[in-house]
Amino acid sequence: MKNLNRFQFIGNLTKDTELRYTAKSTPIAIFDIAVNGSYKDGETGGSKDYTDFFRIKVWGKAAENAAKYLGKGSQVFVEGSMRNTEYETNGHKNYGNDYVADTIQYLNTKPPATNPVPAPSGNES
């Protein structure tokens, strides 16, 4: 039986999308999103708000579109898989997670400050 590795987020970009290229000229876009939520406080019975932050990576044509259309404050739905990462800092191994999107739906876009263009509608994967 196959295992499941999926995430789905709806959130707002905390800064403009950053576009990079690999040594083989493959585009990769990186953007951070804030995902708001709430829970019921067990002591007071009231609602408490919280915000989680996630760094999203997307590859290829979808990366170029994200860099073109997604600026700070844009609302997106992203879906994809998580990948473990390993890197070294000062001889010490560190571990983390990459959130790699394979679907991005633009819900309410704001153009990047560095590349203002008309906003698209719908899926841009």
Summarize this entry quickly.
The protein is mainly beta and 125 residues long.
Write the layout of secondary structure elements.
Blueprint (H helix, E strand, L loop, with lengths): L6 E7 L4 E4 L5 E14 L6 E13 L1 H9 L5 E15 L2 E17 L13 E2 L2
Parallel strand pairs: 4-6
Antiparallel strand pairs: 1-3, 1-5, 2-3, 3-4, 5-6, 6-7
Strand content: over 45%
Q: How would you characterize the largest beta sheet?
A: 5 strands, mixed, barrel
CATH superfamily heading: Nucleic acid-binding proteins
Number of domains: 1
Mean pLDDT: 91
Low-confidence spans = none
Describe the structure.
The protein is built from one helix and seven strands; from the N terminus they run ββββαβββ. The two termini are 28 Å apart. The chain has a single domain (7-39, 47-123), classed as OB fold (Dihydrolipoamide Acetyltransferase, E2P), CATH 2.40.50.140. With 125 residues, it is mainly beta. It has one helix at residues 61-69; strands spanning 7-13, 18-21, 27-40, 47-59, 75-89, 92-108, 122-123. A hairpin with a 6-residue loop joins strand 3 and strand 4. 7% of the residues lie in helices and 58% in strands. The model has no long low-confidence stretch (mean pLDDT 91). Strands 1-3-4-6-5 form a five-stranded mixed β-barrel. It is globular, with a radius of gyration of 17 Å.
